[in-house]
Design goal:
The structure is a single chain. The chain has 178 residues and is an alpha/beta fold. It has 2 domains: 84 residues, no CATH class; 59 residues, PK beta-barrel domain-like (M1 Pyruvate Kinase, Domain 3), CATH 2.40.33.10. 24% of the residues lie in helices and 22% in strands. It is built from 4 helices and 8 strands; from the N terminus they run H-E-H-E-H-E-E-E-H-E-E-E.
């Protein structure tokens, strides 16, 4: 049987139901072969809630470092305390965000780009508009290939590269949805 991973976003009620079903049906067999990972957030920072979630079968907690991590040190201390109290090893996973690059300034907050519209990324520091914007990373422009996708605003906008101007190194893309 191949190893695979499946991710679910579950609220506490669904996690309780899943835990009961897994125990009753013995789906996981004598040895649990799946790991349950819960994302840490303010809703489960209390020791009481952490204990409940661990008792439902959570094996690891994921910390999303893209969000506010002000209380994380205390929460990890609570997890370690519960780990000793419940005699169960609990992993803590740090989810680190990948690199984010900034484009240049844009003339309007209400930028309108149409599906399949030509849009140019260049190194010109002038304020951008609905036809072009500054992309101040020449080292990336030198390595990018035709057909590459460029995602902006955490993937809300997707552009597909269709040409590169060799002399001044701007690249043109078509904006598309999906």
């Amino acid at each position: 049987m191949n190893n695979c991973s499946i991710a679910f976003a579950l609220n506490l009620g669904v996690l309780e139901s899943l835990s009961v079903w897994l125990k009753k049906s013995n789906v996981l067999g004598k040895e649990k072969k799946a790991k349950i990972i819960a994302t840490l957030g303010p809703a489960i920072y209390s020791e009481k809630k952490l204990k409940k979630i661990i008792s439902l079968g959570v094996d690891a907690f994921r910390i999303n470092f893209s969000h506010d991590i002000t209380d994380v040190k205390q929460v990890i201390s609570r997890i370690r305390k519960l780990e000793n109290k419940l005699n169960k090893r609990i992993a803590v996973i740090a989810d680190l965000q990948g690199i984010k690059l900034r484009i240049g300034k844009i003339s309007s907050e209400k930028l309108r780009i149409k599906h399949n519209q030509k849009f140019t990324f260049d190194t010109n520091k002038k304020v951008g508009n609905n036809l072009r914007v500054c992309f101040p990373y020449s080292f990336i422009i030198n390595k990018i290939k035709i057909g590459s996708k460029i995602l902006l605003d955490d993937g809300k906008f997707t552009f597909k590269l269709f040409s590169i101007c060799v002399v001044i190194k701007p690249f043109s893309c078509n904006f598309f949805i999906g």
